[in-house]
Every structure is written in C-alpha cells, then in structure tokens.
Amino acid sequence: MLIDPSNATLLVVDIQDKLIGAMSDPAGTAARARWLLAASAELQLPIVISEQYPKGLGHTLDALKAAAPAAQIVEKVHFSCVAGDCLPDSLLARDQVIVCGMETHVCVLQTVFGLLAQGKQVFVVEDACDSRTPASKSAALARMGAAGAQIVTREMVVFELMGSASHPLFRHISKTYLVGEQP
Fold first, then answer.
1. Which of 104, 80, 96 is nearest to 29 (CA)?
2. pTM of the entire structure?
3. Does residue 6 lie within any of the structural domains?
4. Taxonomically, which superkingdom (predicted)?
5. By residue range, what is the domain housing residue 85?
6. 183 within domain boundaries
7. What is the CATH number for 53?
8. How many domains does the chain fold into?
9. pLDDT per position in the chain (183 positions), as tens?
10. Residue 21, exposed/middle/buried by CB under 10 A (0-12, 13-18, 19+)?
C-alpha cells in the first residue's frame, strides 16, 4: 500500500532535549527528523509530536518545532501514545499514520503496536528513528515489520505524498530536499 496524503498523518515520537544525547546517532537522528518534518509541513501533511514526561526529559528539540510550527504537541507518561490516550481526534480520524522518533524499541514500537491494534495502516520511517543501540533499533524495526507495519524511508514518504512529478511542489521539494548531500 502507498501513503495517501489525504488520509495520513505524521507522528513524531519523543525527540526531546534530555533524551537525544543517549541515542546511537543523536545529530543524524535530529537532522533526518527535521528534514522529514520540514518536507511534510511543506506538503501540508498534518503533524503531531509527542513528548514523554517533558518535566523530566525536556521538550521537543527547537529545530524540530521550527521545521513544523503548526504541529500539535501532546504529552504522555505511557510509553505508547495510544495507551497514553494523548493522540488528537485529527490523527485518529485518518487511516494512515507515518511514525518516526525514539526510542525505536520502546515508545515507537509500543505506539505502532497500539495503532496497528486500532486497525491503522502504519508506516515507520526507519531513517528517522533511533535507539540507544543499533541492535535495539534493528530488532524493533524487524518486529514492527513482522506485525504489519510498513518500514519506509524519508524519501519514500515524500515521493508517495507527492504521487507524481506533476505535483505543484515537486520541483521545490526536489531542489530543497533531494539534491546534494542530505542528512
């Protein structure tokens, strides 16, 4: 199945100030998530950002909030956004959820399993996810894929959101996000 821009939402899970430094690739993860957020915002995809216990773990990275200023930010204490009952109706009304964030094997995985249990079509953006260890990330991606989530990349998401080279933003997106060295 392909991503349908009229029926999808981007969910960014817990890319927060005090947590990012513990990841296996903090700078790369932040840069790739910012890329995905900015491109998705330009393509007018609805965006939700979750924060796990922000009093202790800080808030979403400023660069990510700046990339998608219209994104809705929700707080949770459960590892799963679904179990935490923090997802807005606007996200739940759509059948497809594109998910990225951290940690892949904890909050991302538990959120994805909750979304799958609700009958959602879930797309996990592997190059915009991270864990403290690559092995944990890899195991989580394999487990989510085996459970029915689609494992995708940022470029897959952007090309599926546009659908064709006739999309009005194709030239801009191509020049801005797909040319030259990317994070």
1. 104
2. 0.98
3. no
4. Bacteria
5. 11-178
6. no
7. 3.40.50.850
8. 1
9. 999 999 999 999 999 999 999 999 999 999 999 999 999 999 999 999 999 999 999 999 999 999 999 999 999 999 999 999 999 999 999 999 999 999 999 999 999 999 999 999 999 999 999 999 999 999 999 999 999 999 999 999 999 999 999 999 999 999 999 988 888
10. exposed
